[in-house]
């Protein structure tokens, strides 16, 4: 059974460009946060979406939509886990909040932390 899904998360590892017999495609792993921990999504994308996915890097935050199939597996401790395989036909890159971007890059702002909302 397959369904249409929209998933948001962070890329885990760099996307990999691959050559098939009939087409070039890109695969990637996506870590999506849930109320029960991390859900792992295996992505595959073709054409323009595959090209865009191939240009991203580890840790980038994205939203993907497409045809999904759910599956179950047992982790190393024997606990049941769910996973999803998704054939992406839409992809949007998302930006991290300013504070998180500064912390990850190691940049600091002199004079304090300014996140003022400006109304026009």
Which helices and strands appear, and what pairs or packs with what?
Blueprint: E1 3-11, E2 16-19, E3 24-34, E4 37-46, H1 47-54, E5 61-74, E6 80-94, H2 98-105
Keywords:
single chain, 120 residues, mainly beta, OB fold (Dihydrolipoamide Acetyltransferase, E2P), five-stranded mixed beta barrel, 2 helices
What does this structure look like?
The protein has helices at residues 47-54, 98-105, and strands at 3-11, 16-19, 24-34, 37-46, 61-74, 80-94. The protein is mainly beta. It has one domain (3-102): Nucleic acid-binding proteins (OB fold (Dihydrolipoamide Acetyltransferase, E2P), Beta Barrel). A five-stranded mixed barrel has the order 1-3-4-6-5. It is globular. Residues 108-112 have low confidence and may be disordered.
What's the N-to-C terminus distance?
A: 49 Å
Any idea what the CATH superfamily is called? Nucleic acid-binding proteins
- Biggest β-sheet, characterized? 5 strands, mixed, barrel
Bin the helical content: 10-25%
Average pLDDT rating: 85
Q: Extract low-pLDDT stretches.
A: 108-112
CATH architecture: Beta Barrel
Into how many domains do the coordinates divide? 1
CATH top level class name: Mainly Beta
Topology, number of strands: 6
Q: Which series of helices and strands comes N to C? A: EEEEHEEH
Quaternary structure type? single chain
Determine the strand fraction and express it as a percent band: over 45%
Please state the structural category.
mainly beta
What Rg do the Cα atoms give? 17 Å
Q: What overall form do the CA principal axes indicate?
A: globular
């Amino acid at each position: 059974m397959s369904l249409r899904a929209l998933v948001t998360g962070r890329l885990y590892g760099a996307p990999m460009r691959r050559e098939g017999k009939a087409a070039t495609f890109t695969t990637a792993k996506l870590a999506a946060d849930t109320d029960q921990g991390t859900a792992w999504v295996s992505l595959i994308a073709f054409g323009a979406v595959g090209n865009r996915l191939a240009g991203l890097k580890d840790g980038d935050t994205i939203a993907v939509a497409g045809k999904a199939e759910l599956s179950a597996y047992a982790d190393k401790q024997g606990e049941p886990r769910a996973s999803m395989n998704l054939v992406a036909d839409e992809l949007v890159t998302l930006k991290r909040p300013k504070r998180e971007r500064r912390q990850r890059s190691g940049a600091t702002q002199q004079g304090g932390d300014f996140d003022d909302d400006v109304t026009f």
